[in-house]
Amino acid sequence: MLELQEVVKVYLRENFRHEVLKGISFQVSQGEFFCILGPSGCGKTTLLRMIGGYEKVSGGRILLQGEEITGPGPDRIMVFQTFDQLFAWQTVRGNVEYPLKINGMARGERRERADFYIEMVGLKGYENYYPHQLSGGMKQRAALARALALQPQILLLDEPFASLDAQNREILQEELLRIWNSLKPTVIFVTHAVDEAIILADRILVMTEDGDIKMIVENKLQRPRRPGMPGFARMWDFLYEQVRSSRWQAEKRKN
Amino acid sequence: MAKRMFANRLLSKLFWLLLLLLLWELISRSGIFEPTLFPPFSKILLVFWQELTDGLLLEKTCYSLQLILKGLFLSLAITVVLSFGAVSSRWVEDLVDVLNSILHPLPGIALLPVAILWFGIGETSILFIILHSVIWPMVVNLKTGFRSVPSIYLELGRSFGLKGIRLLGGVILPSSLPYFISGLKIGWARAWRAVIAAEMVFGAASGTAGGLGWHIYMTRYYFDIAGTFAALLAIVIIGILVEELFFNILEKMTIKKWGMV
């Protein structure tokens, strides 16, 4: 349902042509949990932002249900890494309801839907809290509820748990999987953490440091996945090696 | 603990206030200065009370305040348009910058003779002075506010399906509310001063009763110096009420409640 065809991204900086992504092609099917794994600076966020429609492709095409993506839209909602993505002037419920209101949903219906997703992410009882009264993890839950409530065709998650402490990250990974299991949305999840990719994804796209696809790995480990389970360590070693060899190159390129 | 300290500070401020007023009263009663020019505070209070109860002061105040409200409302609309234009387009921004550089240093009251020539003696001229005094400092504030809107907010807004004026009203304006309010504070202070100053030059000539500024001018003309001071007292009290009460409540209900400051 999502198809990238030879997608290229080039930035021009003072006579210097910087090719961030060079000919990326892959497909993500309905209901799939797809991870993009790569070192920081490899262009994975740029890739996600182009699918979101925030940045234009320099070459190639991105098709959603056969139609080319030209800009942002409510069919692709992004959840960011930063805790400050909720509108500060709206309560949790207000934040979740607002995009529904924009898209013309009637008051009663959107209230019902907002409360459904707020409960789903475990924020029941916090509907009337303002964002600054919530912890980081709760803010990310609320942002997830807001994205889910729009029932987009694709959820775009850009390292949404990267700012959380280890314990909260694990909890939220589990919650995300529980939600994914019950709603089966299509998810594209960007991360630089190997274990996170293994725990979450059906397929893992490993990027090279210079914006190309290194490989796409099928993750056949049985769910639910724990770091101690058979096969996990081998997969981790393998993927870690792939990412590690890119990492230093990417770091050098950045500076 | 903090509460007790606050109460102590309040008490000490109150103490100073009362001491200053007492000093005023004593100096006035001592006869060092001509008592008609330097009326005792008790007399000023009495006149203030009389004029308040017979409605005169209230009428003058209301007249000035309605002028300010009209002026502020118009200025707000113009400010939003100018600021939004400036952050949306380089061209408009350069225009706003040029206008701002020329007009910001120009005191409103200096424009009054021109305003009288263009609009005659009356409300329109005063409104013109208010607009001029308020718009430029507010544009500077609101432009900064619009620039400070996190790019994530704009991207989310666009994802949700907002564009143009709906993005402005739904995301950009609420997100820059702290700047908006501080701009409004400056605007209010400027407008209040502009009105009093402009009214002193004319006021009743417009056929209406005139406002506080005009009242100050007339009481001096009729040598009712206690009345002049009573009007000054009214100006001080309104200033305190608006700045301490209105803006405090407004902030508590909005940006403080939302953790935006």
TrEMBL record, chain A:
Q: What is this protein called?
A: NitT/TauT family transport system ATP-binding protein
- Domain ABC transporter: residue ranges: 2-235
Q: Which InterPro entries match?
A: AAA+_ATPase (IPR003593), ABC_transporter-like_ATP-bd (IPR003439), ABC_transporter-like_CS (IPR017871), ABC_transporter_ATP-bind (IPR050166), P-loop_NTPase (IPR027417)
GO terms for MF? ATP binding; ATP hydrolysis activity
Which UniProt keyword terms apply here?
ATP-binding, Nucleotide-binding, Transport
What Pfam families does the database record attribute to this sequence?
ABC_tran
From TrEMBL, chain B:
A Gene Ontology term for the protein's cellular component: plasma membrane
Q: Which PROSITE patterns match?
A: ABC_TM1
Transmembrane feature ranges: 67-87, 108-135, 164-182, 194-217, 229-250
Membrane-topology annotation of the record: Multi-pass membrane protein
Q: Which SUPFAM superfamilies match?
A: MetI-like
Alphabetical UniProt keywords: Cell membrane, Membrane, Transmembrane, Transmembrane helix, Transport
Q: What is its main location?
A: membrane
- One Gene Ontology biological process: transmembrane transport
Q: Which domain of life is it from?
A: Bacteria
Q: Which InterPro entries match?
A: MetI-like (IPR000515), MetI-like_sf (IPR035906)
Chain ranges of the ABC transmembrane type-1 domain: 61-246
Question: Which Pfam families does this chain map to?
Answer: BPD_transp_1
Query: Coiled-coil regions in this chain?
Result: none
Location of the protein in the cell: Cell membrane
Q: Which family is this protein grouped under?
A: Belongs to the binding-protein-dependent transport system permease family.
The protein's matches in PANTHER family, at most eight in alphabetical order, are given as: ABC TRANSPORTER PERMEASE PROTEIN, ALKANE SULFONATE ABC TRANSPORTER-RELATED, MEMBRANE SUBUNIT
Name of the protein this chain belongs to: NitT/TauT family transport system permease protein
